[in-house]
Amino acid sequence: MNSGTHGQYAWLEFCEDHLNFPVQVIQAHLGSFLYITSFDSGRLSPTRSEKRIGWVRQGEVMVSPKLSAQIDIPYDRSFDEWYFFNEKVEFPADHEVFVNYAGGSLMPIEDQVESFSARCTRDGLDWLVQRQQRFWSQIEACLPTTYVAMGMLDTIVSTDLKLIQLLRDNA
Questions:
Q1: Of 84, 97, 115, nearest to 15 (Cα)?
Q2: In angstroms, what CA-CA distances link 17 with 13, 72, 142?
Q3: pTM to 2 decimals?
Q4: Which domain holds residue 148?
Q5: How many domains would you assign to the chain?
């Protein structure tokens, strides 16, 4: 498990299959709006029944109605990416989906170099430095309360420090 902070956000990454992770995140965001940017590595469109209760498509993103305990959230746990907001926003049309990058981590590069072989240098991780910069730029531009990626690593980035601590304690 890796964790850290970036500005107003705390983040947590874990590899183990934390089965309650999506449920705990959803419960912490009742009353918020969910923006699904990736579902099983692809795009998702609301079904007719989902449209009837308020799900919509905004460009390439599926947007929930205000979340309540009665709303089913579609997720596959395989390369799904979510953003939570307290109110509806205009999500950037040119957003980048980060969950599909294998081997990506938010852990500082200097810490990652130590975990690679002695032949690996920081220069060999330039692609990850650039990816992290793009990720944090996107987070800072759209300002979600929480970001979730379920892929090779489960990742949560949130302004809700209690949620991060809850997930850390339950991992």
A1: 115
A2: 11, 21, 29
A3: 0.89
A4: 2-170
A5: 1
